[in-house]
Structures are given as structure tokens and as C-alpha cells.
Design goal:
- The structure is a homodimer of 230-residue chains.
- Chain A folds into 2 domains: 70 residues, Arc Repressor Mutant, subunit A; 144 residues, Four Helix Bundle (Hemerythrin (Met), subunit A), CATH 1.20.120.530.
- Chain A is globular.
- In chain A, 72% of the residues lie in helices and 4% in strands.
- The longest helix of chain A is centred in the C-terminal third of the chain and has 28 residues.
- At the A-B interface, helix 3, helix 4 and helix 7 of A face helix 3, helix 4 and helix 7 of B.
- Chain A binds a DNA duplex (30 and 30 nucleotides) through helix 3.
DNA sequence: TGGCGGATTCTTGTATACAACAAATCCAAT
DNA sequence: ATTGGATTTGTTGTATACAAGAATCCGCCA
């Protein structure tokens, strides 16, 4: 590790269609989803065949993954998967704690009306899917909620860093949501946070965001501890 | 923007000697040092001739710079320099403020004896070069001081992020040091911070680091305001 | 003269070819 | 049988070749 922070903010709609980016995103998700566990040796030839591309775009994708810290390219040897370890997730959460607070504080000061309605809309949708127990949708909306806050902070580096974090710990966040009752609790905490932001109370928003992230993290750790205990 | 965070932590000693990395580092520094201002169109052919390499390693370097946010690659069009704007520097400092605090707190809890002596050694060297008014050396030692703290935090993502920040705002930090009296003030603040860390006082260390970074930032802004006023 | 269209040229995107290095294999000699 | 070394094989690093799109330039026509 670690980490690459491309500007994912605008690539959300229409990903550029050149082979390099397609391979990069696919490989990134493959690694993050555990298809290639840490330590796996990636040979260019195999990946080329799998993706049906030549070595040039594939190598370019590997370069980017190396910068992002997901693989390590050993000269004349090849690429080995580093992935995201549990330690990495813990470390990232330690950072996220403070930065979510910062983002919320800045958002409370700088948010626009459009962004506020966007947040409300997102929470309404979240409530809908919480009732339907659709974890994937909830996760997606959770990402959206936090991204809008980061966007509202008007701090571009902060937003792209947080976006990257969110992507890296996607699996962990999903696991956290499987805890029964967690989704509705998340929704409630988001509501309070939005309230503080809309009132322009940066101090409160910062604390709420910090506590919220902390709860997600603790929830995750308790789940991991359970898993270990078995 | 923004941002790439390769693991610079170990590349300090012997950079890998393949062309891609050499070109990447050279181009990165060229952009950060202002050789290629924002908006510059980078044509692969020209860069190839300049570096004396073929398009393959050059393109790979450009891919990495794109991930880092320093250039934007427009499909079928080429790469344009984004660079680091003054706004970016401000945004980065907003993040740095909280993260330097976090790093110092963690370091206070986890620092080893070796790292402590390393910090002391660094400060002694800094004092030497402050007396000699060698700004480049001071800047280098400043980087080293903060990097050891990040290393002592035992949080790898945090360390590589801070390393990347340090690299990105290198020019700004250098400018800040040109303020007469700033170097010795910096040294004094570093001493206090080291003292707090060595005593294991995380809370104090966190505050000192925050305030220190804040002073650097304010100092920089006042210099920029002066420059604008002219 | 000004604007439109096509051809040319230039640049990027992708694929392949060649070179250098690493590892594995195989043979021989002790 | 084991070890040493040379050869072979395979992989990566780099360079070049080819294809496709963009921009430019020139000439033609209104």
C-alpha cells in the first residue's frame, strides 16, 4: 500500500472508453472484490488473454494500479497483488474519522441549496431501500450521501481522497451493513448529520460525522472479532 | 486534480531504474516546479525526444501522472497539464492540518526509540543548517522530520498520503521558508513537538502539530497576499 | 473575399516485434 | 546422487509499426 486518488468525481457518468481505463477499473474491482488475493502473481500474458487486449493498455493499467498501491511491480519480475489488508482498513478508518469531520464542517459552511436537496432526496431513497432491505442499493446511496457532503465541502482533493477511501473499503462497508439494524441506524445518523449541515452548524456536523464514522468502524471491528472467535 | 499517492516511503534510497519511473519522477518534478504550467499541452513525441525514450515508457509515466491528478489525458487528444493551483494548496493545507495532528497523536503513542533518536538527529542537523541559512537543506530536513513522525504513526496510508502532500506543496513550503525568521521559528516548534511526542502526550502533540501546520499555512498566505498587493 | 469540403498531416490508441533479464531445466562431471 | 553450469524457456522492458481519430491546410466555389 498505498494509495491512488484519481478524480473519480466526474467519471461517474460516462467512463472513458479506451481500453486502458476499462482494464484499470476491471482489475481494480477484481482485486478489491478478492478475485486476486494478496500475493497473487499477475502475468501480463494471462491478463491480456482474459481481457482480450494487447499488452500495451494492460501494462498502462498495471502502472496505475501500482501508483494506487494495489499491486507492486517488481522490475523484470512482474506484478504482485497487494490488495487492502485488514490493517489497511483500520488505518484508513483512522484517517476517515478526522476527514469526515472536516468534510462535514466545511459542508456546513459552504453547501448550496441544490446539494441540500440532493442530500434530502438521497436520504428519502435510502429510507425506501432500507424498508426493502436492499443492501446494495443502501450501500450505493450511502456512498452518494457522503460524496455529496464532500462535494459540498468545495475541497477537491478532500473529495477525491474520500472517494478513493470509499472505494477501497467497499467490501468492509458492505459487511458492516449486514449487521441487522445497522441500516436503519445509519439512516437516522445521516438524518441528524444533514440537519446539522443544513443549519450551518459546522461544529455539530463535524462531531456527528466523526461519531457516525466511528460507529461504522466499531461495528465493523466487532463483526471481525466475532468472525475470528469462531 | 487530484491526487496520486504512490508509496514513496522506500523509493527514497535507490529509485528503480526502469525508464518509466525515471520519466515519471522527472515529469512530476517538472510540473511541480513550474516548467510545464497548467494548461500546457504535452505531446508524446516532444517528450520522447526530450527524455530520449520511446513512447511506451513515456505513455506509462503519463498514465501515472493522470492518476495522480497532475495531468489530464483527453482521449485522442493528448495530455494537458493540470498542476497544483493555489486553491489546491489551500485545500491540501486544510487536510494537512487535521492529518498532521492525527500523525503526531499516533506517533506519541507508538514511536520507537530509533525513531526518537532519528528525530533528534534531524533537529540537530536542522539547527546546523538554519545557522548556515541553507534553505534547501532546511526544507529537506523539514520533510524528513515530518516523514519520521508519519512513519512513527505506524499508519502506512497516512504516511504515503502525507508524503504526497509534502511533494505537491514543496514549492509553497519553500516560499514560506524565505520569510526571514521563519526557519528558526520552525525549528523551535519542531523541538516542542518532539518533546510532546517523546513524553507520549498525544493530545499535546496533536495540538502542537496542528498549530505548527497552521502557522506555516498562515505564513504562506500572508506572503501570497503581499505578492498580490504589489 | 469568405466559407465550405476534402485531403493531408499529425497525434494518439493499440498491437506486435525485438531485446534484456530471470528462472527453470537438463546434462555432465565429480 | 548431487552439484555446477550452460542452455532453454518464459517474462518483462523497450521500441517500432500500424490503425483510427482530430486538426490543419489548401483549394474550390459561391
Amino acid at each position: 500500500m498505498f494509495i491512488g486518488l484519481p478524480d473519480r468525481t466526474q467519471s461517474g457518468s460516462g467512463a472513458k472508453l479506451n481500453l486502458r481505463n476499462r482494464v484499470f477499473q476491471a482489475l481494480e474491482q477484481d482485486i478489491l472484490n478478492g478475485k486476486y488475493p494478496s500475493g497473487t502473481n499477475l502475468t501480463e500474458k494471462d491478463l491480456c488473454e482474459e481481457f482480450g487486449v494487447s499488452r500495451t493498455p494492460l501494462r498502462e493499467a498495471l502502472c496505475q494500479l501500482e501508483l494506487e498501491g494495489l499491486v507492486e511491480c517488481i522490475p523484470n519480475k512482474g506484478a504482485v497483488v497487494l490488495g487492502v489488508s485488514e490493517q489497511d482498513v483500520n488505518d484508513i478508518y483512522a484517517i476517515k474519522l478526522t476527514l469526515e469531520g472536516l468534510a462535514a464542517r466545511l459542508a456546513a459552511e459552504r453547501i448550496t441549496q441544490e446539494e441540500l436537496t440532493d442530500l434530502e432526496e438521497t436520504l428519502n431513497l435510502t429510507e425506501f431501500y432500507v424498508n426493502k432491505d436492499d443492501l446494495n442499493k443502501i450501500l450505493e446511496l450511502d456512498s452518494r450521501f457522503h460524496d455529496v457532503i464532500c462535494k459540498a465541502s468545495k475541497n477537491r482533493p478532500l473529495r477525491s481522497m474520500m472517494g478513493s477511501f470509499h472505494n477501497f473499503i467497499k467490501v468492509a462497508r458492505h459487511k458492516s451493513l449486514t449487521n441487522p439494524g445497522r441500516p436503519s441506524l445509519m439512516l437516522e445518523e445521516h438524518r441528524k448529520l444533514l440537519d446539522a449541515i443544513s443549519k450551518g452548524d459546522g461544529e455539530l456536523a463535524s462531531h456527528l460525522a466523526f461519531d457516525h464514522t466511528n460507529r461504522v468502524f466499531n461495528n465493523l471491528r466487532s463483526l471481525n472479532d466475532e468472525a475470528e472467535a469462531e
